[in-house]
Structure formats: structure tokens, C-alpha cells
Amino acid sequence: MNLPNKLTFLRLILAVPFIYFLQFSDIGGFTYRIIAFMIFVIASLTDFFDGYLARKHNLITDFGKIMDPLADKVLVISALVIFVDLGYIPSWMSIVVIAREFLISGIRMLAAAKGEVIPAGKLGKYKTTSQMIVILIMMLFGRNIYNFYMMLIPVVLTLWSGWEYTSKAKHYFLNSK
């Protein structure tokens, strides 16, 4: 396993303590939110570096193409579900994001069944970046009225990138057997 893939795997492992500290941040207070914040920052940095190193040193693998976005999804979806539980955002916002992720994962599985790998596009990367930034801000400031408005940005990008992705991949639906 090359270094970029190890970083992706590390991001998946970091999800466990991240979930713990974020979930119990109402009990542990600001300290737990800061610990969750720091874990999320480290995990986000692994996302940047695994892609950078893979491209720079031509270490792009099918494992990385599939597991990198999956690791992102685990972190983001975990945070959003916990934010709903803590009352930071309404449930429909996390449902939109989660539904899009399932749809795109389904398309990726159809492509994989045909021996193809579909890497994340630029709009999908912007969506992920906006989600990570908003999650970090929410972890710092906790429950407040602005969370809803901040979360609208990643929700719109989620819908837009989902539409773009499915439009480009419609042949998987039309020609699947």
C-alpha cells in the first residue's frame, strides 16, 4: 500500500475518535468540540496530501479512486448526522447530502461492474471542500442561527454536483444489464 492510500486509510480510522468527541460535545463541552475539530482538520489534511502525493508521484490507484471519496463521505456524513442530533441543522439538509452520496456511489458501482472507475470531478471537490469548511465552523461555534444559512452552500453544491454527475453518467442507467 503506497503512502497516499495509507493516508486515505488513516482518514477512515480517524473517523472513530472524531465521531466520539463530536457526539458527546454537549456533555464534554467546548473541549470535546475542539478535539473533534482538531481530528477533523488532521483528517482533512490527509485528504489534501493523499491526492497531492498521488498526482505528483503518479501513485494513483483504483483503491485510492474509490476509497478517497468514501473516506470523505464517512467523515462528512458522520458530522452531519451528529449535527442533526445536536440540533445544529435540520434533518432534510443531511438527507439531501446523504441521498446524493448514495446515488453517486451507486453510479460508481455500476461503472466498476463495467471495469471503469469514475474519479471525483471539480464540482464534487468544491462540494466536499465547502462541506468540510462549514463543518469546521459549526464545530467551533456550536449551535446557532447561522448554521442553517452556512449549510445552504454545501447543500446547493451537493445538488448541483449530483445533477452534473448523473447527467454525465446517464448511459450507465440506460445501458445497464
From TrEMBL:
* One function term, GO molecular function aspect: CDP-diacylglycerol-glycerol-3-phosphate 3-phosphatidyltransferase activity
**EC number in record:** 2.7.8.5
- What Gene Ontology cellular component terms go with this record? membrane
Compartments, as annotated in UniProt: Membrane
* UniProt main location, coarse: membrane
Sorted alphabetically, the keyword list is: Lipid biosynthesis, Lipid metabolism, Membrane, Phospholipid biosynthesis, Phospholipid metabolism, Transferase, Transmembrane, Transmembrane helix
Q: Which GO terms describe its biological process?
A: glycerophospholipid biosynthetic process
Q: Which residue stretches, if any, does this entry annotate as coiled coil?
A: none
Topology versus the membrane, per the UniProt entry?
Answer: Multi-pass membrane protein
A Pfam family annotated for this UniProt entry: CDP-OH_P_transf
Please tell me which top-level EC class this enzyme sits in: transferase
Membrane spanning stretches: 7-24, 30-49, 70-89, 133-160
NCBIfam families annotated for this entry? pgsA
Q: So what family is this one in? A: Belongs to the CDP-alcohol phosphatidyltransferase class-I family.
This protein's name:
CDP-diacylglycerol--glycerol-3-phosphate 3-phosphatidyltransferase
Question: What is the native source organism of this protein?
Answer: Fusobacterium necrogenes
